[in-house]
Design brief:
- This protein is of the alpha+beta class and 851 residues long.
- 41% of the residues lie in helices and 21% in strands.
- An 8-stranded mixed β-sheet has the order 6-5-9-3-2-12-15-14, with no helix packed on it. The chain has a 5-stranded mixed β-sheet with strand order 17-18-19-21-20, with helices on one face.
- The protein starts with 8 loop residues before the first strand and ends with a helix.
- Bound molecules: tryptophan and zinc ion (ZN).
- Tryptophan binds next to strand 20 and helix 2.
Length: 851
């Protein structure tokens, strides 16, 4: 715990480190409470630096000894590191420290999980392992020696010695310390191999604890697919003799791309048909791909400083999305990503946590692993690709890899390769990296005797992060449909650069219907005043699958907004449109399932807030329930046929085809449950032989206020399987009625299996509460109070996870004054907790803002 006031770090203050690190040798002598780490580091003056003060980061380290060129020294140990007088030229720094992995509950640095040692060093965890210049622009070659009684001892790179109780690993590729990793434990390997495009054989291992061996096969296949895809699509070959993945139960995020030794949250890699849902399989495939792709976009080319985080994350998210669209369905992936973007990034960009894709200051970098950096960062790359075209994008990427391999780079370096390849000036485009907030794009049409004109105007609200917003470059993909639904103008990319701009289409026989922002070609809020007839027309006819879905989504949102604000009945255009979609069995079931999914209650709250209305969580919940019932009644006759069509008789496979059917079947079952009170859901639960069906039928029962018996049976069946029990916790809270959610969550926090120090279990419980919109925002404040109580309790144990979960409160200013004062009081209570971590302190001051 720091008692000093938090320091703010600025992008503009960047200076290179005074030394280069020529090599690093580390020796670990493992012991749960007293691990010894000896380091031998070769430093030389950095000719590119002006400041040659010798400062090494270090936190929670017990310094045992230090020496320079073999002579003992007594460094000045100061807060967050040490300094020492050093010789003029090159020298060897040696030191030994003692650390306490067992006592490390923050899950950053070297820690223990389920009896194994593991590490998490991004962003600034290596300084909890030894004294080091822990910054991404200091890259070096590491040799790591591990001593410990464990059968498996792993680090980065290639193994040089693997003996009993002793191993040496050497990583030939220079890397920053955040990519360092070490694992030691009694683990089992699921092994395979991959032959690269140049014929090198790579050994692949997925290491797990005993009992998890049967959950490895899918992850391994996903890894091989990813390796092949990166060769074929980006020309990127793997560069070591081995690639290891380790599954760990206690982990703050999804996974980590450590060079040659990826470490995964077990929820992001382990899966079997009985224990994982289709959605879990799909997420695992994407995360394996993401971490693997970091080998080039992140590891071989890394970030100069943490302000450049989107350089690796935005690009790698973009690459993993391309991979998923290629191996699954492109429109389905795009729609899922836009749903996520609106659910997570838009509220962030429109609230007190708004920050640019490349932030300009921070107190705690862990707080900037955000939807804006990751997901909006990926959207920005998608826009760049749309603007320059596929060919130029491919050439720019080739140039990026050729020019910057082995370097620590900036967004300027990234944009320069595009400028050099295309001759374009990207200065204005760069505003996507520097301005916070979601642009609003208003459009108006004009029809004049064969000439059709679209008038656009863009606006970006001023925010603390961006007080004087300037117009951005917006690629607007547009197509035009004739009155009979035929496309009269194929998709074109309009390039908007001004605050207001008009685009003309000539020679049309009749006034067309525009399909604007196809593929969701830019992360903006599109504002178009139009009637439900036009939305229904696009829902029936749009040739762009994204915009066809979007038309249905907009109809749903608009009718729900009317229902929630004026008690209007469910809109006929929506109900009829959905019925037509349900009946249309030429459409992919996965796509139909997305069409039928109602906008979430928080999406409704966002839409109301964007429209300047105070969202009422109870009214939104009511509207959502009423609409679902109306749709169920309207579609009553076709639902049995859909259920039959979606039945899968073949052995379970988590492929797009089967999982699409199960997704549509689950939508249909949810509607049927509105009519039969859960009879069919109970039948399905009884025969379910895979987790997808088991969990979807349990969810339906719980939503209908039933399922007590199944909840008990589920627990009895899965007790001891952590990942499945996480679902058991989460589902009961997610499906609880608004007036019960906080009570259910509170009761579950008293369950003997509520291991709150495990981030997955904490999120499954308190995270599920925060996502039950009406339950979390229940008027008596009990939802807010429960979450705040637990955040206060978790903060000293695990600041990183605590701070991330504070974002549940980020939308507080949009609610009514009674709720605002309840939340405000909880925020104050958190903020005033003595000894609050830097992570949570920063989140509180940003969320609460200047009062
Ligand atoms: N770099 C990781 C990724 O995007 C994520 C990451 C950052 C992370 N910090 C972390 C993972 C801390 C675990 C813990 O894949
Ligand atoms: Zn990443």
């Amino acid at each position: 715990m720091k008692d000093t006031a938090p320091q703010t770090i600025f992008l503009k203050d960047y200076t290179p480190f005074g030394f280069v690190v020529e090599s690093v040798h580390l020796t670990f002598d493992l012991s749960p409470n007293a691990t010894r780490v000896a380091s031998r580091i070769a430093f030389a003056p950095n000719p590119e630096a002006r400041d040659h003060r010798f400062f090494l980061h270090g936190e929670d380290l017990k310094l045992i000894r230090a020496a320079i060129d073999g002579t003992p020294v007594s460094p000045d140990v100061i807060d967050e590191g040490l300094t020492c007088a050093v010789p003029e030229g090159s020298f060897i720094w040696e030191c030994e420290v003692e650390i306490d992995p067992q006592g490390n509950t923050a899950l950053e640095g070297l820690y223990m999980s389920g009896g194994m040692y593991c590490t998490q060093c991004e962003a600034e965890g290596f300084r909890k392992i030894t004294y080091y210049p822990d910054r991404p622009d200091v890259m070096s070659v590491f040799t790591v020696e591990i001593k410990g009684p464990h059968p498996v001892l792993l680090s980065n790179g290639n193994p040089q010695v693997q003996g009993k109780g002793h191993a040496i690993w050497h990583d030939p590729w220079p890397k920053p310390a955040y990519l360092f990793a070490l694992v030691a434990g009694d683990l089992l390997a699921h092994s395979d191999s991959f032959t690269t495009c140049s014929g090198k054989e790579v050994e692949l291992n997925l290491y797990v604890r005993a009992g998890d061996e049967d959950k490895c096969a899918f992850g391994m296949e996903a890894l091989k697919k990813s390796m092949k895809w990166d060769e074929e699509v980006y020309g990127r070959e793997y560069d070591l003799d081995v690639f290891n993945i380790v599954a760990v139960d206690d982990f703050n995020m999804g996974a980590m791309e450590n060079k040659g030794l990826n470490i995964f949250n077990s929820s992001a890699v382990l899966a079997s048909p009985e224990t994982a849902t289709d959605a879990n399989f799909e997420r695992i495939e994407a995360i394996i791909a993401h971490e693997y792709f970091h080998n080039w976009t992140g590891n071989r080319i890394t970030c100069r400083d943490w302000f450049q985080l989107c350089l690796k994350e935005g690009l790698t998210v973009f690459r993993d999305a391309q991979f998923t669209s290629d191996v699954r369905s492109e429109p389905v992936k795009r729609i899922q990503d836009v749903i996520e973007l609106r659910a997570r990034q838009f509220p962030e960009d429109q609230g007190p946590l708004a920050h640019p894709v490349r932030p300009e200051s921070f107190q705690e970098i862990n707080n900037f692993y955000t939807a804006t950096v990751y997901e909006k960062g990926a959207e920005v790359i998608g826009m760049l690709k749309r603007l320059v075209g596929d060919q130029a994008y491919a050439e720019a990427l080739d140039l990026y890899f050729a020019r910057h391999d082995g370097q620590a780079c900036t967004i300027e370096d990234w944009l320069k390769v595009f400028e050099d390849v295309t001759g374009r000036d990207l200065a204005q485009f760069k505003r996507w990296y520097s301005q916070a907030g979601t642009p609003r794009l208003a459009v108006r049409e004009e029809w004049d005797d064969g000439t059709y004109t679209l008038h656009f105007s863009q606006s970006l609200g001023a925010s603390a992060a961006t007080p004087e917003p300037q117009p951005q470059v917006i690629p607007i993909r547009v197509g035009l449909l004739g009155p009979n639904g035929d496309e009269v103008q194929a998709t074109r990319t309009l390039e908007m650069t001004e605050a207001t701009q008009s685009f003309r289409f000539e020679g049309l026989g009749a006034k067309p219907v525009p399909s604007i922002l196809r593929e969701f070609s830019a992360p903006v809020v599109l504002e178009r005043e139009t009637d439900t007839a036009e939305r229904a027309f696009l829902l029936a006819h749009d040739t762009d699958p994204f915009n066809r879905w979007e038309a249905g989504r907009t109809l749903a949102r608009e009718t729900m907004m009317d229902m929630a604000t004026s008690g209007a009945p469910a809109g006929a255009a929506y109900l009829d449109g959905m019925l037509a979609v349900l009946r249309d069995d030429t459409l992919d079931p996965a796509y139909r399932a997305l069409m039928l999914a109602q906008p979430s209650q928080s999406e409704l709250a966002n839409a109301l807030a964007e429209a300047g209305t105070t969202p009422d969580p109870d009214a939104i919940w009511q509207a959502s329930e009423t609409l679902a019932l109306a749709l169920a009644q309207h579609a009553q006759d076709v639902l049995p046929r859909i259920m039959a069509e979606c039945r899968v008789d073949a052995p379970y496979r988590p492929d797009p085809d089967q999982s699409g059917k199960r997704a549509l079947g689950a939508r249909a079952l949810a509607l049927v449950t509105r009519l039969d009170g859960g009879a069919q859901a109970a039948e399905q639960y009884a025969v379910a032989d895979n987790m997808t069906l088991q969990l979807s039928s349990l969810g339906c029962l719980l939503a209908a206020g039933k399922g007590e018996e199944q909840v008990a049976a589920f627990y009895a069946q899965w007790q001891g399987d952590r990942l499945v029990i996480d679902k058991w916790f989460g589902m009961q809270i997610a499906q609880a009625a608004p007036d019960r959610a906080a009570d259910v969550a509170a009761r579950l926090t008293e369950h003997p299996d509520f291991n709150w120090k495990n981030p997955n279990r904490f999120r499954a419980t308190l995270g599920a509460l925060a996502m039950n919109h009406a339950g979390f925002h229940i008027a008596d404040g009990s939802g807010y109070r429960l979450l705040a109580d637990w955040l206060i309790r978790l903060d000293p144990v695990n600041p990183q996870t605590t701070a991330r979960m504070c974002s549940a409160f980020q939308t507080w200013r949009r609610y009514d004054s009674a709720r605002q004062s309840l939340i405000g009081a909880e925020l104050e209570r958190i903020a005033e907790t003595p000894g609050l971590s830097r992570d949570t302190t920063e989140m509180m001051s940003r969320i609460r803002g200047a009062e």
